[in-house]
C-alpha cells in the first residue's frame, strides 16, 4: 500500500491522496525502514511536499513524467526537495514484484523429486 501511495502515476488521482489506510501504511513502512527517529519524522513531514506537488514535484517535466517514467527513477530525478522520503520511496519502488525466482526453484524441485525417483 505504501508503494501504491508513493507511485506518482497513482498518487495524484483524487481519491488516493486522502485515503487514511494508505497514509497509515506509509507511516508504518517509514518507521520500519528508517531506524533514526529524526529522519523518520522528517520523511513524514516531507510527505506534504509530495502530496501537494510542491517544489520539484511541480515542475512540468515531473508532471509529464508521472506516468511515463519508472517510479523509482522519477523519485531519483524529482525528489531532491524531499531527500528522506526520496530515499525510502526509491527503496520501496525499486523492488521487483515477480515470482520467476520461485518458479525456477519449483522447476528444479520437480526435476529432482519425481514419482520414479521416490
Keywords:
118 residues; mainly alpha; 8 helices; 0% strand
SSE order and pairing:
Blueprint: H1 2-6, H2 8-11, H3 20-33, H4 37-51, H5 60-68, H6 71-78, H7 83-93, H8 100-112
Overview of this protein structure:
This protein is mainly alpha-helical and 118 residues long. It has one domain (2-112). Helix content is 67%, strand content 0%. It contains 8 helices and no strands. The protein has helices at 2-6, 8-11, 20-33, 37-51, 60-68, 71-78, 83-93, 100-112. The mean pLDDT is 88. It comes from Nyssa sinensis. One of its GO terms (molecular function) is protein dimerization activity.
Which term fits the overall shape? Answer: elongated
Rounded average pLDDT: 88
**Number of discrete domains:** 1
User: Count the helices. How many?
Assistant: 8
Helix and strand content put the structural class at mainly alpha
Estimate percent helicity.
Answer: 55-70%
Question: Kindly, what is the distance between the CA atoms of the first and last residues, rounded to a whole number of angstroms?
Answer: 43 Å
Would you report the number of β strands?
Answer: 0
Beta-strand percent range? under 5%
Question: In short, what is this structure?
Answer:
With 118 residues, this protein is mainly α. It has helices at 2-6, 8-11, 20-33, 37-51, 60-68, 71-78, 83-93, 100-112.
Amino acid at each position: 500500500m505504501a508503494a501504491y501511495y508513493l507511485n506518482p502515476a497513482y498518487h495524484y488521482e483524487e481519491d488516493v491522496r486522502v485515503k487514511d489506510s494508505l497514509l497509515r501504511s506509509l507511516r508504518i513502512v517509514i518507521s520500519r525502514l528508517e531506524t533514526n527517529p529524526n529522519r523518520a519524522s522528517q520523511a513524514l513531514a516531507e510527505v506534504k511536499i509530495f502530496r501537494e506537488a510542491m517544489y520539484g514535484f511541480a515542475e512540468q517535466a515531473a508532471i509529464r513524467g508521472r506516468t511515463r517514467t519508472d517510479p523509482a527513477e522519477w523519485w531519483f530525478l524529482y525528489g531532491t526537495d524531499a531527500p528522506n522520503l526520496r530515499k525510502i520511496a526509491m527503496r520501496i519502488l525499486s523492488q521487483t514484484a515477480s515470482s520467476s525466482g520461485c518458479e525456477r526453484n519449483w522447476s528444479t524441485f520437480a526435476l529432482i523429486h519425481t514419482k520414479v525417483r521416490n
